[in-house]
Design goal:
Helix content: over 70%
Structural class: mainly alpha
Shape: elongated
Number of helices: 3
């Protein structure tokens, strides 16, 4: 049972690290969070990714409009 928990933690850390890299977020932060929380960090990650994309889009629109 403990081996399964460790495997899921490592798999989650790898997944969130890769997803953070492709989204342009902090890789170490999300890999560590994925290791600690496991799959429970997915809603937090998707929300953070959407907020980061919205922040970039709003700043780009402000630059283009001025």
């Amino acid at each position: 049972m403990a081996l399964l928990v460790i495997f899921i933690a490592l798999l989650s850390a790898w997944y969130f690290g890769l997803a953070a890299f492709t989204a342009g977020l902090s890789v170490t932060h999300w890999a560590l969070l994925g290791f600690v929380l496991g799959p429970l960090a997915y809603p937090l990650f998707t929300t953070h990714r959407h907020l980061a994309l919205r922040k970039i889009r709003c700043s780009e629109e402000g630059i283009l409009n001025s």
